[in-house]
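Lecture notes, part 5. Sequence design as translation. It can be helpful to think of inverse folding as translation between two languages: the language of shapes and the language of residues. The source text, in structure tokens, appears below.
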């Protein structure tokens, strides 16, 4: 009830396909494991992907980590 209504999408014409591979690696201190997406640790100051409004992208998420981890997108609205 608090989410903004979103009109259902029709059959999309995919404009771009992307693969996101999740892995785990030791952090720089060597004290903790951290998740990486396409070999990069999360960095709020870095923009890796820019999507264009109105275009449809097909994202494939591959988890090669040793444990489950929810995949989510920050700072945007989208429809799955």
């Amino acid at each position: 009830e608090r989410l903004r209504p979103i009109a259902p999408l029709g059959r999309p014409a995919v404009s771009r396909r992307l693969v996101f591979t999740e892995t785990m690696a030791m952090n720089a201190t060597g004290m903790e494991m951290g998740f990486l997406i396409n070999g990069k640790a999360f960095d709020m100051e870095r923009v890796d992907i820019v999507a264009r409004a109105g275009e449809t992208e097909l994202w494939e998420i591959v988890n090669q980590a040793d444990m489950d981890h929810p995949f989510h997108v920050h700072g945007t609205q989208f429809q799955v």
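The translated text above is only one of many valid answers, since several sequences can fold into similar shapes. The two ends are 18 Å apart (CA to CA).
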